[in-house]
Amino acid sequence: MKVTLLGTGGMIPTLHRNLPSIALQREGDLFLFDCGEGTQIQFVRASLSFGKLFAIFLSHLHGDHVTGLPGLLMTIMQQSREKPLLIFGPPGTREYVNISRKCLGFTPSYLLDIREISEGRFYSGAGFRMEAILLDHRIPTFAFSLTEDPRPGCFFPDKARELGVPEGPLFGKLQRGETLTLEDGKTVTPEMVMGPSRKGRKFVYVSDTRPCAQVVKFAREADFLIHEGMFSSEMEEDARKKGHSTAAQAARIAREAGAKRLVITHISSRYRRINELLSEARSVFPGAIIGRDLMEFEIPMHK
Ligand SMILES: [Zn+2]
Ligand SMILES: [Zn+2]
User: Fold this and answer.
1) pTM for the complete prediction?
2) 69 shares its domain with 119
3) 219 and 179 in one domain?
4) How close is the Cα of 13 to the center of ligand 2, in Å?
């Protein structure tokens, strides 16, 4: 899986930070989390393909997270897309898309499959599932997670040979979890020739929220956590009033959740330099990163 930060600003764009949008690439599909104004051009800058877009996830309907959507939907119409495009979001998502379509006078040539979700598991795909929880912002706002199914353990061909399994298609059957009965009547199970199953990866996106206790559980042992951290600690009271977090609060959530990596986004336009945010976050979560537009991260598979 590969993460590209398309927009790491919040509320208003700056010369250096676009409005929120995160791309996640997995097995040839592209998942887009939020679609702030300017997302299309960031797509182009990051050399991402509109054609690979599988689904768009809207955390909430504040303008900084969704105003890039109508333009993106229109651009995709130029691409002779045949497969449907999924859009997941809070109640109101369908109305927002439909009113935009009406006002701008466009009808997508592809199927737009809009689904207004509630908390819990809301989608299961090939080898992964997606879940959502409500955050603590000023309007209904979701955090999203994508968790991969566990992968089968390592296959040990020498062990299989020792047990009398002939090399070839039977090796594949064992790796797919099938039990074999050999010609001599002996049974060989996958467990006899494979190591323990390997954990799938977990990606979590948390935008626009006050520090929220449920996120600790939701992001438990995430391989990659993106959490908003709009302000420095001296603005903590202001952040709370506006429904946001400080960088240090984001770091605390990541530490309590046992997340492996933390990238902080939705950075206020007041911070041209990020030293303060970075040192506050790193004093709590040493590996914390303050996201910059077009940063890319690989999320490696578990061995
Ligand atoms: Zn926002
Ligand atoms: Zn918001």
Assistant:
1) 0.93
2) yes
3) no
4) 14
